[in-house]
Amino acid sequence: MAKLLIKSGRYINPKTNTDENLDVLVSDGKIVELKKEINSNGATQIIDAKNLWVVPGLIDIHCHLRDPGQPEKETIETGTRAAASGGFTSICPMANTIPPVDTAALVEYVNKTNQKFGSVNIFQIAAVSKGLMQEELSPFEELKGAGAVGFSDDGKPIENLKLLRHALEYAQMLDANIISHAEDSRLCCGGAVHEGHWSIKLGIPGIPSSSEAVCVAREIELVRQTKGKIHFAHISTKEAVELIRKAKADGLNVTAEVTPHHLVLTDEDVQDFNPNKKMNPPLRSKEDQIALIKGVLDGTLDTFATDHAPHTFEEKSRSILEAPFGIIGFETALPLYLEVFYHTKKLSPLDFVKKLTVNPASVLGIKRGSISVGDVADITILNPNLDWTYDVSSSFSKSRNSPFHMRHMKGKAAYTIVNGHVVSKN
Amino acid sequence: MKTQKENKLFTENITQPEDIDFEILKRKDFNWSRKNLLTTRDLLEEEIDLILDTAKSFSEIPTRAVKKVPALRGKVIINLFYENSTRTRSSFELAGKYLSADITNFSVSTSSIKKGETLQDTAQSLLQMGADAVIIRHPHSGIPFQLAEFLPNSISLINAGDGSNEHPTQALLDLYTMKEAFGSLEKKKIAIVGDILHSRVARSNIWLLQKLGLDIHLCGPPTLLPKSFVDYGVNVHWSLKDAISNADIVMVLRLQMERQNKGLIPSLDEYHRLFGLDHEKIKLAKKDVKVLHPGPMNRGVEITSNLADDPKYSLINRQVSNGVAVRMALLYLLIFASFIKPQTS
Q1: ipTM for this prediction
Q2: Above 70 in pLDDT, residue B1?
Q3: Domain that holds residue A282
Q4: Is B140–A320 a contact, with Cβ atoms under 8 angstroms apart?
């Protein structure tokens, strides 16, 4: 039987609060032994993890694979390969594909395609409403039975609050989360960048912070009423952070995520009109950025996401008004999060890893995010200090829409191991 | 500093008509290396002076019996207009023709731009067609900056209006017109009245006039003039009275009619009552106040016909003729700058 031995690494497992040098032995897709020194006799593959972190496989709670429907942007094959290269062993694609994932058959399509062509685990997010039309609930139970782990109409907010209310109620039967894309579609309408100093200076229609904040506020009140569970995607404003902080203090079932681009870029960066800096929510102000970092540190923002959103070169060559929202992010998320939180010593390695493993696993209730004996052998081995430069032309994604091309990075996944198999080696 | 060789090249490559004062371009302090004009934000004071002086020396050409000098003979200029514009396009077209350039129009309805051609494709086409200068207008902010990234040093790019961002040649012709009327503009109070938020004319003027020490007062309703404009070092007024009291210059902007449908103003009548300029309201300004408007005017909305046509106040016709002279100057300077000194702006 194949036995993979990971030698001399720094084993960091937030689930058990362990951060020490331990060897890890993997067999039959499971972790079978953890010890200071494991004899390499009998190992069929040995990875020398000296000076590397050995952590639970990273989980991306929010991404877009464009499959089915938009193979010119991404497919399950290319998207999961990019995810593997970035250190992710599990990813949660959103339902806004063409057609949207609103039936069990489509969840099965995704899972079967992934079994055949994919590199990492997919935990599909299914649509809240049939066809994302915001009229009727999609078949939650059937979708969950087929493997969906949460529900979201991400890409657009649910303006129909009555439908959202019923979604929050119905999902409780399945102990599932509703993932909210929080913006007010009228307030943000026509905007391309954050409304503030730079949008006014450059004459670009803005998306006000209130667009996110009013939506978060009204949805928190629905959670208070229904006692349901909501997870706020890609939080970008200081106002929303404050609302979520208060909701948590009130004991509501509210969680939230942040993206790397909102932490390392601001609205000032859009002055070159680069459509690859156009995403939704938009790059906000410096004060928002500081509030997001604070929100991560005090636990208001539970998880790190990528919001990997591929678009074609042609689409992203348009004006900043016409280009679609979104950037790719699988291969840059880990180093950017390290840059903001680890290299600045704001988070310990244990707390850092938590945001990419145990926390997203617990938000969605998926059995991943830990590497104790008996756990599935989804492991990321990373070098937190590796200096490298991101070249988007070498991305495994089909798309090239990254604002981080040629950015200096520090830290990178060295090995990505899914179910005991090395799926990516950098 | 320019080397002698460069100066020589500069004069060798053009056929100078005897009767035009090109001395200005040979003067010792001349150091023009700009290739593109995309914004007024990065213009240096010396550059502004040179543009205006050059425009002055060109300004009499359109008044001659034979309205042509060979300054840009053999140069190709392309008007790349993604948005309808009669006056700006014609102004550039004539400016190029007076200088003997070959100028052609490349407008959205006759090209493949709508068919999904990318900016890179457009840039490549312009290069292959042998353009020396491209004049671009686009309904979206930033497109000239994006296009500039793809153009080689041999092609000069002029922004003729991008979305709500900038319209630098309009600001320069406004400046020329004001200087013509007042001489020095330092500490002169200018009120810019109208839809500032969506106005590229206002933005280019603000950035330009700030450099020259004017006292800038913006005026409009809060939906079209957010208070946050004070961040840029200008005064913001929601009352026309406050804005134009004691003003030396009032620049009236065109009100786009769709602002009413978008819920930004209740009605054109109310707008006219509060912000429309007429003979009565202009009395609040200085006696010798001058009025500018970038055109085309909505007579009876932002300005009354009587005032617009009153030669005592109105510089509107001067703006039109000066526009041609300023654009001649810019075409000349930018094309030759890229010709002799391949540097980016």
Answers
A1: 0.90
A2: no
A3: 56-364
A4: yes
